[in-house]
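Schema walk-through. Below, the input block comes first and the output block second. Nothing else is stored per chain. Lengths vary across the set, and this one has 109 residues.
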Amino acid sequence: MSMTDEIAAKYVQARTNHFRVLRKLFASAIVIRAILMGALLVMGAFFVIDRQMTFGQFVAAEVIVVQISYAVEKLMTGMGTIFDMVTSAEKLAVVTDMDLQEEEEVHHG
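--- output ---
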């Protein structure tokens, strides 16, 4: 029973570490997008107030930047799937590399 508890504890720790990496990916995607949007608004407001850009140009630039930032965020969140696939392949490699256990024959009856 203690071996089962040990395996379960290792599994829970591995899952915690796995989701810690995914949380960092998602958090970094949100932070990057927030910084990008903030910089866009500040620069756009400066250019519109300074009459170097019309409001229509500002809106068009914002639409393009929002689409690019969405694509980057989608790529970063897709990294979770890639991370899961690599982790699964590593787990399969560990299982397939294990030595086979020879069991004694059990006679019933």
